[in-house]
Structure formats: C-alpha cells, structure tokens
Amino acid sequence: MTFGATSTTDDVLEGIVLTGTLAVVTGASTGLGEETTRALADHGATVVMAVRDLAKGEAAAARIRGAVPQANLEVRRLELGSLASVRSFAEGFLAEHESLDLLINNAGVMASPQDTTEDGFDLQLGTNHVGHFLLAELLTPALLVGAPSRVISLSSAGHRFSPVDLEDPGFATTEYEPWVAYGRSKTANALFAVGYDARYGEQGVHAFSLHPGGIQTELGRHLTEDSLKTLMDAMPKDEELIWKSIPQGAATTCWAATAPELDARGGAYLEDCQVATINDDPAGRGGIKSYAIDPEQADALWAWSAEQVGLD
C-alpha cells in the first residue's frame, strides 16, 4: 500500500503486530512523541517514554492508557541538554533491558533564543543532535542485540535553512539567528542517520531521518512574531502551507519504524511516508538538500560529535 502526506499513524500501522517490540521514544510527553507512543503501544509494542518532566510524562501515559488500556508503558527521565542525564538514562535502561528494537529520537527545540545546554553547546544543536548522538551510541549495544532494529531521528524541512558549521558550532564568531541554528541542528539529524547507518547498517541496525511535516505542537513554543515572519518569508510564494494533524505528522515516524522496504534504504531521509528525493533548488519545497546526506559531511560531524561527548 502507498502512503502519503495525509496518511495517519493508524493507516500506516494497520495490520502490523508489534508484540515483543521494545521502543524508546524521546519527547514522548506531548505532540508527535505522545502520538507515536500511543500508536506503537496500540499495536503491541512496549514503549519507554523518555521525557524531561516526569509529571508530564506520567500524564501522557495516563492519556494513552485511557485510549489503549492494554498499553505497556514505562516513563523515564531524560534531559537531552545534559550529557550526564543522557548517560544516566542509558545506564538505567541497559540495567533492565538487554535488547532494543526501536530508538525514536523525537524530542527537540525549534527557533529558540540564543542559549546553551548544561555542557555549553548551542541549545538547539546540543539538544537536537548532540544529546541524541550520545544516546544512540550508548544504546547501540542493545540495538545490536535487538537487530534487525532501527534508529529514527526527526529532522525537518528546516534543514534547508543551513548546513552544519563545525568551525563555529556555538556561534562564537557568527551572529546568532534562531532559524540558522535550527537548520544546523536539523541538518545534523539527517547527517547522523547517514553516519550511523554507515557504521551499523551491515550489523542490522538501520538509521533514518525524516521530516514530519508542518504540525502545530509545543515545538513552536519559542516562536515570536519576528521568527514566524522569517519562516513564512522563506516559504515558496506559490505554495500554500498545509498543516498536518498530529496523527498525520507522526505517520512518517511509524512508517520509518515498520516499513520492510526501508531495509534496503538505510540512511535515507523520509517525508510524507516516502523516501525523499534530492532538491537543491533554493526556492524549492520538499526533498532533501544534498549537503544533508553527504557521506563526507556525515563523517566529519560524527568525528566532531564523538570528540565532544568523549567517545572513540
């Protein structure tokens, strides 16, 4: 069956049984993360909900159990802006779970004012990429045991705002612009999938990145009138921005987690439940910029990231 922009999580998971599947979903207390958790749990998966705020996470779990009484959920604290928190989460998870089938790097921040993480990274790059990079690397032993398994990172069409800048990742010499910082972090998410799949794909752990679409969720909590105008000005003038519902927005994530045809497409960037094509048109919408799936750029980002978090 062919899916598209209007497909929902229930559409792409219809007929799929996930009993025995263990998934970790970051940012699972609201929006796309909560819907992804609900959909996977509804089809039998056990889901570890990785959340910043345990109270919000438990409230989301209660909502999911209200809709899916048989949902098997576990709520754990994870602050992606703290490498110590990422390590603590991974240690606790591995102490209780030997294998992992799905790691869904869903959490993120968008177009925030300039700030840094606990470890001094630009807030958007540190939260959206560096924290998830370390999390995936620490959980890789369990993903290898669970192979065939998948790592799925939510990138964005916002990657089109900027490639990564490893010369000045923290805006020390570059004027900070919220959408440029967001673009760098979302490009990093796409490059991470390329780099991860190159290292672990042959061992049965495939990685993907994706654009969920335009959805009105808490991700937009930092948007100001000026930053929203910048976003709208960047849109092609001959195309109307079509908002997706949350179940439509989470559909590509669920498709990435389960579609058997993706086994041969590790490292791909997905949108609207399809593998995206390269689109380097500056005024274009849709597709993936070639710089965001470039293997050399992926290797450079991997080396920088590993050094930053203290991994070989």
Helix and strand topology:
Blueprint (H helix, E strand, L loop, with lengths): L8 H5 L8 E5 L4 H12 L3 E6 L2 H14 L4 E6 L5 H14 L5 E4 L17 H24 L2 E6 L23 H23 L4 E7 L13 H10 L11 H4 L1 H8 L10 E3 L2 E2 L19 H15 L3
Parallel strand pairs: 1-2, 1-4, 2-3, 4-5, 5-6, 6-7
Antiparallel strand pairs: 7-8
Helix pairs in contact: 2-3, 4-5, 5-6, 6-10
Explain the overall architecture:
The chain contains 10 helices and 8 strands. The chain has 312 residues and is α/β, with parallel strands linked by helices. It has one domain: 3-Layer(aba) Sandwich (Rossmann fold). α4 packs parallel to α5 and α5 packs parallel to α6. It is globular, with a radius of gyration of 18 Å.
Characterize the overall form: globular
* Strands side by side in the biggest sheet: 3-2-1-4-5-6-7-8
The number of distinct β-strands equals 8
Low-confidence stretches: none
Domain module count = 1
| Major sheet characteristics | 8 strands, mixed
Please give the oligomerization state of what you see: single chain
CATH topology: Rossmann fold
Binned, the helix content reads 40-55%
Alpha carbon gyration radius = 18 Å
- So what's the CATH class? Alpha Beta
Order of helices and strands: HEHEHEHEHEHEHHHEEH
Structural class: alpha/beta
Instruction: State the fourth-level CATH superfamily.
Output: NAD(P)-binding Rossmann-like Domain
